[in-house]
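User: ok so my PI wants both of these folded by tonight, can you help

Assistant: No problem, let's get them done. Here's the first:
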Amino acid sequence: MSTFPAAEAESNQSGNTRPALREQRLQELLESCQSHILQQLIGPFGLNSTMFTDSDGGNVTTTHNFEKGVVATDSDKARYEAWSETNSGGYNRKPYDKELSGKRKDMFMKDEPVISAYTGNELKRDGTTHLDHVVSANRIETDSRNNLFMTQAQRVAMANDPKNLVAAESNINQSMQEMEKNEWADKVRKNNKGQGLSNTEYFGIDREKLAQTASTAEAHVKKDVLIAQVKKQGAELAKTGAQQAIRSALRQALGIALHTLVNHTFIELKRLFNDPDKSNLIDRLTAALKRVVNQVLSKLRAMWDAAVNGLLQGFISNLLTFLINNFITTAAKVVSVIREGMAGLWKAVKMLINPPPGQTGIETARAVTKILAGVVTTSLGLMFEEAIKGFLSGIPLLLPMVGILSPAITAILTGIVSSLVVYGLDRFFDWLSQTGTERLKAMEVGLDAGKENMGKMAQWLELQFQNSASYRMIGADYQLIESHLKSARNSQSDAAASQRTRIQANQQFNQQLNANIDSLGAAEADVMLLLENYLAKDPL
């Protein structure tokens, strides 16, 4: 997908005035319209329709599409019809039961005892012993994946494998019918025999043994189906991927060759008509033809590179379409869009990863943006083609030519739109790269200032962090001082309490002492009174 020539270089652009640059872009617009229209006519709306036969759902049938009846091959269509008939009219059990009689006889002929896979009991070698499909034949035969990836013979072999075909009591086998094993075991019986009991209780089922048997069978079936899926879809992906890769390589190489051939043929014809030289016309035509051939030959290297890239793009787009169709069904046009989009995305990624030497970042962004814009416009054009085709089909006079006119008109419109979009992008990037606007420099200055401010803010935050650490240390010291003060205050409180206790004791002692002194004084007074009374009674 081509783009306008990139801006010459910033040094060249700086020498151009704005009107001159605008005039240059307009001239490029006129020249590129022809190139874009020619590319669309040759590529997406020309070679694609002849080299690729896109269909709904892609080239490999997925389970998602199979269940909707969207298939890629006739054999898958037959499988879908057989599967639909089975689901609507019931499956044929005869192929599954055909081998059971012989397998049961072989089991009875062996020396080891026959053990029930559900109860663990030893079974008799008679009609009371059956062989049961753990994953039922009905489930195997009606599953969409099994029908898509396996033949009936493969499904029967999987069902009758010893990991899925086990010995069981006849009454248990008949009671189970097509039910899932754990669901059947939990079911409560409603008939007269064992009414109100679960099947586990009524038949004496060993739930651990039943669970192990069911798990082994489920794993066996999943493994066999997965192997069949990998074999079928792997082979189909390899085959269709190789086909798409080869076609994509040829389409890319032929696209460059045809574009160069047609474009330079127009240039040479224009030169022949505009050249006043009246010399031999045959010689002039021969010289013009040689120049055209030389131009095509000069593109051999580009054609080879395009072919190599086309190989990878074709294979990847086929794989991507397959992956998408595992979740949603893609229309035929979407398949075309994926393939064309892959080519553009591939080119854009290569440009980003490995830009041309000396190319500036803004020029790389310009080129990548123009490539992606081309991808979008081409994709929209491919989707819009159906609308144009429907419109033209409504005109009876044009109905016979709809198949030719609709892609041609769509290619012309897509080419014009692509040119206008790329022109607008060129103008936008020119505006970004113009030194007169000073926008980029202002942005750089702003970013530098922001960087400086961020540095200062980081320093301020560092200081704040250091201050916070100091504050934490001071706070810890304050807490320690507070703890010491509390201890001192508690000690003082204890001392004051002790002092109050001593004072109270001294006061009590003094009170007792005073009471004793008062008692002694009273006693002394009594003694003196007695003495006086004695002396008064007995005078000397």
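One down. Here's the second:
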Amino acid sequence: MEPQMLPYSFFVEAYTQEGGAMQDLMPYIVNTAQIERAHIDEMAWYQLTLAYVEENMAELSSYFIAYLHTQVNTPQAKSFVLTLLMTHDVQRHAGIVIPYLADDSKLVRNKAVVLLSSSTDQAEAILPLLAHKKPAVRESVVRLLSQWDSEMVREELQALYKREKNAKIKELIANALQDQLGIPFQDERSVSAEINTVHLNWLEHETLPRIRLRASNELVDETVTYAILNAYAVQEEINRNWKAMELAAPLRAEDLSMLADEVLQRWLGKGAPANRKWVMAFAAAFGDERVVLALQARILAWPLESRSAIACEAVKALLLSPLDSALLFIDQISRKFKFNQVKQAAVAAFSQAAGIAGITTEELADRVVPHLGFDAKGCRTLDYGSRQFTLQLMLNQEIRMTDGSGKIYKTLPAPAAADDVDLAAAALMEAKQLKKQLKSVVESVKNRLEQSFATRRRWTYVAWHKLFVDNPVMHVFASGLVWGVYVDEVVTATFRVTEDVSFTSEDGNKVVLSEGDFIALIHPLELEEGARKRWIQQLADYELKQPLLQLTRNTFTVLREEENALNIMRFAGVTINGLSLLGGLTRFGWSKGSILDGGSYIEFYKEHESMGIGVQLAISDLAVGMEDETVTVYEMDFYSAGKVTRGSYIYSEIKDEDRILPINVPKSLFSELLFEVDAVLVKRLGFNEDWQLYRT
């Protein structure tokens, strides 16, 4: 067992008792508590320092303020102290942060913008900075005020717009007013040859695709293209640009999507520099499926290249896309993704989209499942001119292609002499993209169904019918699953959806549903053994393969000896390869716990916020990037979701008041969480008989 360090307060007390002044200790505390300045062998001391600061901010805040005004000399230290103060008490310390909007350091100004983003009550104190002589300061203030929607702010921004000489700031104000306040463009509607293209030189903008007017098919002047691109280039951040949207309104969508794809590819070809991340915002706003697929591919790849930050920005960019497939992907990685930083960015982005729509995230997830062009019967036609091909969506989530004579094709054939070359080329491209889209949709839907299965999500009959019957893509999933009708917590009927969109019981009898019904996926724990076997037989008779393991799923219940236990020990002592454990739990949506000294972690966790329950699986040390070693599994604990603090070099602790006893976890969720761990531990290597000797 490692020796335990004394609390940091002992060090502070000893220092002051020896005559040291607390104010003189502040530089050391600030330096030690900044994680980016901590050496790998000082992480435990860093953690103790930060914990001491956070626990004693009420007493320390006055010292930090004095230190900020008299001793801080680096932008990093200023940003750190400002963050500590605002985290402790926003109302009390907002006034202290305001002057730092005019700091000489861009890092500090940007931090002040972030920290003051919710301090709308400070508007009167901030507005005078719009008259600051330095453009960089006015820009920071405009970026802050652009987030607020009030009459006073609108009037001040309008006034600044009229007198402002800096083109970049004018662009920011114009976009802010249009975005949040609905003011139409006036002089900005006209585009002249004076557009500054300095931000676009790297693009070789003279060679970009030309754009035509939608109404006349006439080529527009290139300055319009440059104005649209420049509007995004000067805003820097990943946001919708309403000036660009206004300029693009009369232009051909097909030309804009081609331009978006070309600009994105040129940026990617130059290494995707972060200082030109605006390209992703432009491409997502105007691009088609090519852009969505390209950004999805980079979001998956960038974290492997240590570029998680730019991957998070790409997630924000996808939020600007008008295509449902973009939101579908965000929803997918918000539920299950290996890299937690990107996953959390997706969670935030999807929550933001749901908030804008005024619905829950689950309701939004229902809305964005695309039909992919299939009709009510699951068919879609592609045209070669002289002949047509029917694409049929099958119950196994695959596509069957046939021609007019009924001949089946694995892939579309090459165009024949009698075919229309352009139509055939378009059909081939459409089929190629459709396969990629369907693969992405199927993966996303399976993840959602697994989560809905675990959390026992229920739909009203109307919402369920719209999603699982009216949507041809979801219909193929619904047909292979068994559903339950619920009154309160009681299952009153079970059924499946037939190909002719009727509902049948396990005995083959017709089931009639009504608008007042609540419907959910049935869980094996809710079925009597006889009914479960009849359902299994019926699916086998119709050669239906379940899209997720439902009826034959292993189930788990609290054992008698666990009824009064604090945690679950039935997996304790099992050994497994770390990569197998990491990969398996990640696929089920679990995440690594806090990264501790030496880059190691000692737990996995998963939280179901909708049910308010989290679970933590303790393990022996695993080092990030070196998981190919044997690891021992320890206990499994349940707690109130959101109550356990995690982060770099923060030891997770479940407080007694936040702990949930296994017996109090909903039966189906308990079963599912143990099912996931058990499924991963199928690859176990053995059992460590002495595991308790190493459990500290």
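Confidence is low (pLDDT under 50) at residues 1-5, 37-41, 179-189. The two ends are 7 Å apart (CA to CA). Good luck tonight!
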